[in-house]
Amino acid sequence: MENFNFYNPVKILFGKGQIANIASEIPANAKILITYGGGSIKKNGVYEQVIAALAGKTFLEFGGIEANPHLETLLKAVELIRKEGIDFILAVGGGSVVDGTKFIAAAVPFEGDPWNILAQQVPVKAAIPFGAVLTLPATGSEMNTNAVVTKAATQEKLYFSSPLVFPKFSVLDPETTFSLPPRQVSNGIVDAYTHVMEQYLTYPVNAPLQDRMAESILLTLIEEGPKTLANLNDYQARANVMWCATMALNGLIGVGVPQDWATHMIGHELTALHGIDHAQTLAIVLPNMLTIQRDRKREKLLQYAERVWNLVDGDADLRIERAIAKTREFFEAVGVRTKLSDYGVGLDTIAPIIDRFEKRGFTALGEHRDVTPKVVEQVLTLCA
Amino acid sequence: MENFNFYNPVKILFGKGQIANIASEIPANAKILITYGGGSIKKNGVYEQVIAALAGKTFLEFGGIEANPHLETLLKAVELIRKEGIDFILAVGGGSVVDGTKFIAAAVPFEGDPWNILAQQVPVKAAIPFGAVLTLPATGSEMNTNAVVTKAATQEKLYFSSPLVFPKFSVLDPETTFSLPPRQVSNGIVDAYTHVMEQYLTYPVNAPLQDRMAESILLTLIEEGPKTLANLNDYQARANVMWCATMALNGLIGVGVPQDWATHMIGHELTALHGIDHAQTLAIVLPNMLTIQRDRKREKLLQYAERVWNLVDGDADLRIERAIAKTREFFEAVGVRTKLSDYGVGLDTIAPIIDRFEKRGFTALGEHRDVTPKVVEQVLTLCA
């Protein structure tokens, strides 16, 4: 395997009832801002649990953080925090609320235009501390340093990463996910699955433990994901998918191995331009990325075919084709469509996406840095 | 799965050459004590790498920490640290040096007799910070909060655990393990394997990801362990075993699942009374513990038989017997003998061990708390 550094100090409080334990994780006398999204937490009992757990503490609220959180919205929270002297944030919601809160946390002490944290990748030098109560297993944001933010004005979706925006703690209570709309449950499964694939489906570097751990998450998502859709109150299945989603992107399966992420970079553009859900973009792009890159990913595709889909007999090329087809079928089976046309998008989206990549200097993506604009065009053409 | 909390802030620096990077992980102006064992680090080049990396820093040395580190030795280091005003420790060695350093770190600010940290489990309220350069993959001590210390005067081997004794960082450079005696390499493989088994081979609680991650480590040790013995300079195999040993006991595979540890508790007594290497005691006890507890562990034994040893056909009881036999054969194949008689110990050791358990109030061990002194006697009888 390759050399690596690994560090992840996020404290995880996992299981039903754990929201009740957050007060002791927050500094005494902290002035807290609770950040949340569209208000579902006020309908499903999560908000009440959080308020009860914060009894005796001082807090304000900031709701309305949208999916693919908007810079414009987040900057209002930054203003509020500066004005009110807030010194701890509690994000209550899914990956968008957690991502948005990371940006807010870094933007508050940032000097200059906070958009440059994303657009110019200006390093974050400080951030106010925050914790999370996760209500949607998907992005892994609850246990990592990454955040993706969208500037609505220019339809740009960009990310940043900093060890200063590790959550201090994250509560993962599977019961908070019972009331999610099925579309979000489906999206979460595909998002976690693709996070694993971006770190696993590259080329072998003799890292058998990382490979097997990645396969462990894929197999568990394939096994447990459909159960969460078949019975919305299946606690154990929800718990297993929730833990899979966190483990998929907390850094551990990616240590010492090459990583891809080209599917994500293309997917972000589809979301920015057309408003397609993040996971839907991954379901569209990933199978076709694997198809176009099948020669460069050949060894890992054969391993994936065997260990994840039990495809061991017959022609190797056929096994690869079937493994890719199985991947697409799994996405469809958990309710996520896999073609651009399913979302009313035509191939005329290709030119502006490539134009955007070139303008940002993303000239070559993927684990070999060989996913050039030409390759992106080939991939997106297959997505029709 | 069961509810759990998980927190592990140890920074891992993995790979060849990483010792050169430790200076930036140690506070500037720290007065450092380097702790080490019998002096092998002065023969294999590790000491020189450490000294070079600490250029310009102030440090003292404390060598001579033995396998199963002795309270009596460690207290000398405590005295030195207090006298010299040391404020950071750098442990360079295997699990015994790291365990001993954890005890030293906690004992320095401890009020009263530090032995009570172990004997009376008095909670640790402070510890001086330390880092580790690991030279022997086995115990997992480099990424956890546990330490085992032996009081030579009374032949007592006891443990303590505290989040205050997480290493600040651990360097895992597989090249430092090339010069290990084969016996220590063998022991490390068995130790890591048994750590996984103590957390995996209990009863099912619907935690498929934890199960698969545990199986991932077992399969990788079975695959990579023998390679490290066949070719002492196989960097990749060493790297894979080293990462397996760390992952086996950094808390992750044990979240939300029952744990056993009865084999360890019995093994510690065999070490304390007879000086048998820790891993050797595990190789002696584990197969027989599985045999005696086979009814209570039946479901997981069948899963283990299928997923780790590919035993899927025939009578279920026979599969269980074969899986246990395979476990024993693996230990023997990597060079660790599995009978008490191999170490010149007879069954007359049973009475004193049970006497010690009863005196310490260890009346029932294991995941069901049903490994009574009577069961311990049954297990040890099979170890003849």
UniProtKB/TrEMBL annotation, chains A, B:
InterPro entries: ADH_Fe/GldA, ADH_Fe_C, ADH_Fe_CS, BDH-like
UniProt GO MF annotations: alcohol dehydrogenase (NADP+) activity; butanol dehydrogenase (NAD+) activity; metal ion binding; methylglyoxal reductase (NADPH) (acetol producing) activity
Coiled-coil stretches noted in the UniProt entry, renumbered to this chain: none
Record keywords: Oxidoreductase
Segments forming domain Alcohol dehydrogenase iron-type/glycerol dehydrogenase GldA: 9-174
Database matches in Pfam families: ADH_Fe_C, Fe-ADH
KW Oxidoreductase (keyword) present: yes
Keyword set includes Oxidoreductase: yes
Domain (Fe-containing alcohol dehydrogenase-like C-terminal): residue spans on this chain: 188-356
GO cellular component term, pick one: cytosol
Name this protein carries in UniProt: Iron-containing alcohol dehydrogenase
